[in-house]
Amino acid sequence: MNKGFFNLPWLVWAGLALIVALVYSFIGIPKSAETAVGLRFFIIRWGHALTWVLLAINFVLRGISPNLDGTANLVAGAGGVMYLLFMVMTFVVK
Questions:
Q1: Where would I find the H helices in the chain?
Q2: Which of 5, 21, 34, 37 would bridge with 52, disulfide CB 3.0–4.6 Å?
Q3: 50 touches 89 (CB < 8 A)
Q4: 6: exposed, middle or buried (C-beta count within 10 Å: 0-12, 13-18, 19+)?
Q5: pLDDT tens digit string along 22-63?
Q6: How far apart are CA 40 and CA 86, in angstroms?
């Protein structure tokens, strides 16, 4: 099993990321989601949780094989873009 940050396996990090995704799916819903509609609503409501799901997928890919690191980087990049969209839709776009 491949080791990740702090010498913990990548699959442990994936589990932690999924726990955070579940928390943000049910507890950490921004107030601005109440008035948003359409795509903005979807990104505000689910963007943060989706970011953590993408990070969990990234960690799983890294844990499976070092050969998948390139794909894992793309998935992590998609998570970063999702988080950027979440921040823009939450705090910039009204």
A1: 10-26, 38-64, 69-91
A2: 21
A3: no
A4: exposed
A5: 999 998 788 888 888 999 999 999 999 999 999 999 999 999
A6: 9
Terminal alpha carbon distance of the chain = 46
Positive or negative torsion for Cα 37, 40, 44, 47? positive
Burial of 28 (0-12, 13-18, 19+ CB in 10 A): exposed
Place of tokens 């990070």: 55
Task: Write b or e for each residue in 57-66: b if 16 or more Cβ atoms lie within 10 A of its Cβ, otherwise e.
Answer: bbbbbbbeee
